[in-house]
Amino acid sequence: MAGKKVLIVYAHQEPKSLNGSLKTIAVEELTKQGCSVTVSDLYEMQFEPRSTRKDIIGDLYNPEQFNYGVEAWEAFKNGCLSEDLIEEQRKVREADLVIFQFPLYWFSMPAIMKGWLDRVFVQGFAHNFPQCYETGLLKNKLALLSFTTGGDEGIYSDEGVSGNIRYLLWPMQHGIMHFCGLSILAPHICFAPEYASEEEREQMLTSWVERLKTIWEEEPIKCTAEWYYK
């Protein structure tokens, strides 16, 4: 949709990977629609995932005992966060849709992406209790997890050894995204691309493009325990 702004937070080391291809065709399709697309390529940026004293510029609120959550909150209020965090927060603030593109690692996102969330979604910017969930500070924005898995779809089913894939999504979609007020679109999952044929991988890319063509017409999921665990 012309005029919409999209941020893709991308975490993969190899541009030729399926994740890299999914990111690239998302940029192409959304740009074709007239959207403005920005990519935070975390590995390419050498994004620092660790939350440290370096995130705060200038004096600490309490130099006697370092509490990252408190210090980041105070720094955000006073405009004293490091430049890299200010830049990433600007991208999020301007976006109508944030797409997280990554391979599933240990039932979660890669550490570099989790670190991005730890450092960027600080109190005051993304949430400020009781302003969370439906009243989170990032409300009126959409989020979508697009990821690949190592195992096939059967492994992530009710009968599979890993359980229903929705169980894994609860902490990411509900505990992070929804907590900060984001409306969550259904995840886009490419199962076991490493073991797929070239034709099957091409179909994965085609399916992603087809979905993106109508992405702005989608309704968010009901981000409740009943949706995840029914």
State the main characteristics.
37% helix, alpha/beta, 6-stranded parallel beta sheet, 6 strands, 230 residues, Rossmann fold
Structural write-up:
- Strands 1, 2, 3, 4, 5 and 6 form a six-stranded parallel beta sheet that branches.
- This protein has a single domain (5-229), classed as Flavodoxin domain (Rossmann fold), CATH 3.40.50.360.
- 33% of the residues are buried.
- α1 packs parallel to α7 (198-213).
- β3, α5 (111-120) and β4 (142-148) form a beta-alpha-beta unit.
- Helix content is 37%, strand content 13%.
- The mean pLDDT is 96.
- The longest helix is centred in the last third of the chain and has 16 residues, at 198-213.
- It is an alpha/beta fold.
- It is built from eight helices and six strands.
- The chain has helices spanning 18-32, 42-45, 68-77, 83-94, 111-120, 165-178, 198-213, 225-229; strands at residues 5-10, 36-41, 97-103, 142-148, 183-184, 188-190.
- Its main location: cytoplasm.
- Keywords: Cytoplasm, FAD, Flavoprotein, Metal-binding, Oxidoreductase, Phosphoprotein, Zinc.
- It is an enzyme of class 1 (oxidoreductase).
